[in-house]
Amino acid sequence: MKLPDFIIVGAMKCATSTLHEQLARQPGIVMSEPKEPYFFSNDEVYEKGLDWYAELFAEAGPGDLCGESSTHYTKLPTYPKTVERMRKHVPGAKLIYVMRHPIDRLVSQYLHEWRMKFVAEPIEAAVRIHSILSDYSLYAMQLEPLLDTYGRANVLPVFFDRLHAEPQAELERVAAFIGYEGTPRWDFDMATQNVASESMKTSWIRDAIVFAPGLSPLRRRLIPKSLRNRVKKFWQMREKPQLPEAEETRLRALFDADLKTLGSWLGVELTCANFKSVTRDTVLEWI
């Protein structure tokens, strides 16, 4: 039974899909399909059993490294049984945790939840009503049970801005961490994954029309693009949501307290104000 050698455990909306796909393109690495099986987090998936999970890696040959990427694994308090299940079934796995500026991550998650129709409120109301928007940006809180269980040597901190600025170097760092013996190559031609630039709400009626076989060429030929764009705006969030100053101040105070703990583990001072520059310009490791 082949189980993952490493797992990208989050955080949500931090380029985990891009990292997953880049690793999948390296010879000798087998990444799960689907990307996010949620086996250890979601009760209904865990009930499928370990044999079902192992089938995700059945294509791996001798010596291949296997991995998966489930951001639900760092979504406390939503999925409280995750670490216990991981400790039971994959105690030797290497874990990779990708972090982004906590407010940027929150806004990106809000757009995702709005597009999926999980939230309908303006962002200033949503952050008060839906605590998960801030909870998933509390990186020290999410990391603590993993560090306690797996030890710092087996959890790699990766940062969104560093990955964007130095993709090849960061891919090599990840590869070395998981024990990959080859030299990985970042595919610069690969499109960034999961970029919802238009932030469009889901709609089964719209998708049934747009993706109907043979209809797309007819639609493009008969309906002017200007009209199609006006119709599209019905499902779009036209402007990036902005947090009111008072709400952003409250969130910065919340995140700064968490970042103080995270920074102490990394040997740097981290705040919302310096997060991007520090994490972009420095390779951060646990002290």
Structural class: alpha/beta
What is the class in the CATH system? Alpha Beta
What would you say the CATH architecture is? Answer: 3-Layer(aba) Sandwich
User: CA-to-CA gap between the ends?
Assistant: 35 Å
Strand content: 5-15%
Mean pLDDT: 90
Task: State the domain count.
Answer: 1
Sum up the structure in keywords.
15 helices, Rossmann fold, 5 strands, globular, alpha/beta, 287 residues
Description:
This protein is an alpha/beta fold. The chain has a single domain (6-186, 238-281), classed as Rossmann fold. The chain has helices at residues 16-24, 43-46, 50-55, 82-89, 102-115, 123-129, 132-135, 139-150, 160-165, 167-178, 204-210, 215-222, 225-232, 245-266, 275-281; strands at 6-10, 29-31, 65-69, 94-99, 155-159. Strands 2-3-1-4-5 form a 5-stranded parallel sheet, with helices on both faces. The longest helix has 22 residues, at 245-266.
Short description:
By secondary structure, the protein is an alpha/beta fold. The protein has 15 helices and five strands.
Give the arrangement of secondary structure elements.
Blueprint: E1 6-10, H1 16-24, E2 29-31, H2 43-46, H3 50-55, E3 65-69, H4 82-89, E4 94-99, H5 102-115, H6 123-129, H7 132-135, H8 139-150, E5 155-159, H9 160-165, H10 167-178, H11 204-210, H12 215-222, H13 225-232, H14 245-266, H15 275-281
